[in-house]
Automatic annotation (TrEMBL):
Family membership: Belongs to the ENY2 family.
UniProtKB keywords: Activator, Chromatin regulator, mRNA transport, Nucleus, Protein transport, Transcription, Transcription regulation, Translocation, Transport
UniProt source species: Nephila pilipes
Name the UniProt record assigns to this protein: Transcription and mRNA export factor ENY2
Compartments in which it is found: Nucleus, Nucleoplasm
Gene Ontology, cellular component aspect: DUBm complex; nuclear pore; nucleoplasm; SAGA complex; transcription export complex 2
Main location: nucleus
Keyword Protein transport: yes
Amino acid sequence: MPENKKNLIEPNDIEKFKELLRTRLSESGWKEEMKAVCRDIIREKGVENVTIDSLVKEMTPKGRELVPDSVKRELLQRIRSHLDPMSA
């Protein structure tokens, strides 16, 4: 393989990035915010009117929006450093 080819991210590395993301989201309070969003949706629509699919559909954009910028930046920097160690 030519030296200028970037290494692909291995499955083990992906798991490490996922674990970092889970940890940072938990530390930032994101998980608690998402629980509150879920409760609010159920309270607003009524438990009998909410399905898992509709809940996920409504929560996904809000969840992405609530991820702290610092978490996004850190994860992106870690991925860049992994792909190009010379840039670190």
